[in-house]
Amino acid sequence: MKFIISGGVFLSGLLLAVPAAGQDSSSVTDMTYHSKVLFLPAIGASPETGFLFGAVVVPQFKLGDSGQNTRSSSVFISAIYTLKKQILVSVLPNIIFPNELWVLNGNHYVNYFPTDYWGVGPYTDNNDRITALYTQINLEQSVLRHVGEGLFVGPYIRWSRLANVKFKNKDGERISAPSVRGATGSTSAGLGWISRIDLRNSIMTPASNYYLEFSFLVNPAWRAATNVYTTYKVDGRKYFNLSGDGRSVLAMQGLFRLIAGDPPFYDMSMIGGDMINRGYYEGRYRDQNAGQVQIEWRQHAIWRLGFTLFAGSGEVWHRFNELSLGNYKWTAGAGLRLNLNPGDPTNLRIDFGLSKESTGFYIQFGEAF
After folding, report:
1. 3-class state of residue 202 by DSSP
2. Which CATH architecture has domain 14-365?
3. Which residues contact 172 (CB under 8 A, 6 or more apart)?
4. Where are the domains of the chain?
5. CB atoms < 10 A from the CB of 201, how many?
6. pLDDT tens digits for 229-250?
7. Cα 146 vs. chain centroid, distance in angstroms?
């Protein structure tokens, strides 16, 4: 289970004070940007965490002589505890240089994260569920250069360590580690590349245009590295502004993650979560590769309120010659939206997702994609 402050930058919880970090709402009333520090409680829910609570500190600022055409920089600093006895501490910098010539994104966290585990493959049974308990340290940083209209490219690095790994059965009794890579701990160190086209009209509440990202990360046999593998990811999103004013939007996403080599179990490709195929516990199905798609209709209703209808599908597989669409996973659901900041639309979302074997209830900040 990866820490949830997402896809790019993600926050697992409801920020009860706005404006949203990373969005410059001061420009609505004042041409001069004013730096600020937000101190926010965090409350939320998901099947992976249960209800969660904690605190978030978000400094917002602009570097140097950044003007109105440069989005504000921010740093998410959070500490969260969940009712499933998980502890999540993170620092997520999003630093934007003047004229957006350079963008630095980071994802640094330390988690103690008991999580459910069913094994590997598309045919695991609900009765296979056990609990994995571990501490994870993750350091991830990208440096992207603006090279064209909406186009950013650059390298990123990631170091991740899984330690103190234990497993328990449904009754909470300690059991032997399953025969899977990373079951006794793991260290990965990788170097990768990101190419991203982002022409969305908004990061937090997109209503038009598209987003496309391709990335790969090579985890070679560095000293102390325990797993050698390469991940490839393609994330494409398209938004149709049906009403012309952002009040009715049709959004679509395709997400594909492929792995060559020997990844540890916690870094395999997974189905589900709070961002895509809502209704499946993230990691309910995992394997070398995963392909997922989803579609969502977002409709404003009255005042600051709106609703959504969504559906998704996906599958995991080990080798391409083993891929079968006869057992694909599907989800469907609906949600409510509350716009917390009319001057720069930022939604609180409450979603209920249903799959053919489970359900999920989510309270999150910002759209799923």
Report:
1. coil
2. Beta Barrel (2.40)
3. 131
4. 14-365
5. 12
6. 999 999 999 999 999 999 999 9
7. 23
